[in-house]
Amino acid sequence: MARTRARGGQQVHGRNVLGWLSKVFELNPAGLNWPRGVLILDLMLVPLIVFLAIGHQEYLLSALFGVLFAAVADPGGSYGARAPRVAGFALIGAALTALGFGIGGDAWGWLVLAAFAVTLLAGLAVMFGVHRFVAALLLNIWFIVALGAAFSFHQFNLTHRHAQITSYTWAQVLAWAGGAALWIAVTFIVWLVSGRHDRPQTIAELPGDTSRHELTPPVTMFAVIRAVVIAGTAALAFGLNLSHGSWMPIAAIIAMKPSLEQTTLIAVQRLAGALIGAATAVLLLLIPASEHGIRLLAITTGLEFAAVVFFMHGAATRFWNYALYCGAIAAGVLILLDLPQPSNYGAEGYRVLWTLCGVGIAVLVTVLAAELAKRSAKPSPRPSALGARTCPAPAERLSSGVTRSARANLSFRCGARPRASGSTIGSAGAAARRAELGYFRSVGTEILPGALTVAKPFPAEYALIHRMPSGAHAARGLSVTGDAHVTT
């Protein structure tokens, strides 16, 4: 009997593990976009060839991130409207590049303070629209990467007096701005060739909402918590002088989401991608280990092209599978960062270790925040003796951030009928809201501050929601079915 129970427990555990693996590597066929990947490859080949020709590959990373993030942040539309927005994005990125590489060799306290301030401002950017929040998140990630690269250059120069890496802040800024300017020039040429018609945004899966949102206390609190986490991981990485420790805050900022379930899934996918990318980079960096002269130069050039190809695969598979996307991006970044010192193969192991620490800290903080929210929330009403669901009080059904129009469109199984036929779930207005909700559900679980599913019972779990702002945006962002299952 004991053996049977143990065997049954092992089978259940095995099924749980397989279920998690299927979630981590679940493929979305509609998310695979090879034309987008080829476009990114063509764009990245330009700065690669330029910096190979002038012999300053230490600035290649800034140029590649500049053109890639400018393409992602492009809102689309008429060229007269999109060009100033991309230019503004490029100017802010240039300022953050100057700040990151300018203070990279200073005391670690300044690095921690800058990481906290930039992360906090990026989290509060949701008040200017979801699309601008995504752009701010990209700039936030690039700033942490720039800080890590500058800190690594400084530490390498301190420990290798005979082989210095020359990196000027103004040149890094120029490389970033040049990459963004390349995208603006390409879009201008495409706009002229296409007859000056409006163009869609490059990443169609990302939301294009640029309307202002009210900055609610839950959104502010999440921005503060995320900034504290990034500052803490930056203090560990730079204060303890960890080898390649910048991957810890990078992993934390990507893995930390407002939903515990989504945080755990994204964290595992990020970790799996880091392992795949590190293993790939280790195998490729073994090639030039014992080479010298012309042969070493040829292999190094080939590996730089390989890194750009990895970035192309990342752009094509971003919405196909997040773990594979992280693996492709990690492999490209690892190769570019390790080429100046190819004999240091332990760098890949350190990066995987700090990635594990970063996602672990992100998940731990989210678990603690969820527990505190549960304890502060009111307990849900118990069901009646007949087994019927008790209808929550009107004040508990909806937060103060939901307007009267949204309240009229909610239907609960409490015996109450809708006031009008137009307020039921089957109406045309509700159908339009459900269609919009389906779009946000496909991307919102990774970028929207309020994107999570709240399981029953409704009142007890509602405290975990980062509420959408009051007004029309809250009305568009809520959908409630008959069994009180809420998705924002």
Q: Could you say how many structural domains there are in total?
A: 3
Largest sheet: 3 strands, antiparallel
In total, the number of strands is 3
- Topology as H/E string? HHHHHHHHHHHHHHHHEHHEE
Helical run tally:
18
Summed up:
This protein is an all-alpha fold and about 500 residues long. The protein contains 18 helices and 3 strands. Strands 1-3-2 form a 3-stranded antiparallel β-sheet.
Structure characteristics:
single chain; 488 residues; mainly alpha; 18 helices; 3 strands
How would you explain this protein's 3D organization?
The protein is an all-alpha fold and 488 residues long. The chain has three domains: 32-209, no CATH class; 242-376; 394-487, no CATH class. The chain contains 18 helices and three strands. The protein has helices spanning 2-24, 34-54, 60-73, 79-103, 108-124, 130-159, 169-193, 217-239, 247-255, 260-285, 293-317, 322-338, 346-376, 394-397, 404-408, 428-447, 458-461, 472-477; strands at residues 453-454, 479-480, 486-487. It has a three-stranded antiparallel sheet. Strand 2 (479-480) and strand 3 (486-487) form a beta hairpin.
Give the SSE layout.
Layout: H1 2-24, H2 34-54, H3 60-73, H4 79-103, H5 108-124, H6 130-159, H7 169-193, H8 217-239, H9 247-255, H10 260-285, H11 293-317, H12 322-338, H13 346-376, H14 394-397, H15 404-408, H16 428-447, E1 453-454, H17 458-461, H18 472-477, E2 479-480, E3 486-487
Antiparallel strand pairs: 1-3, 2-3
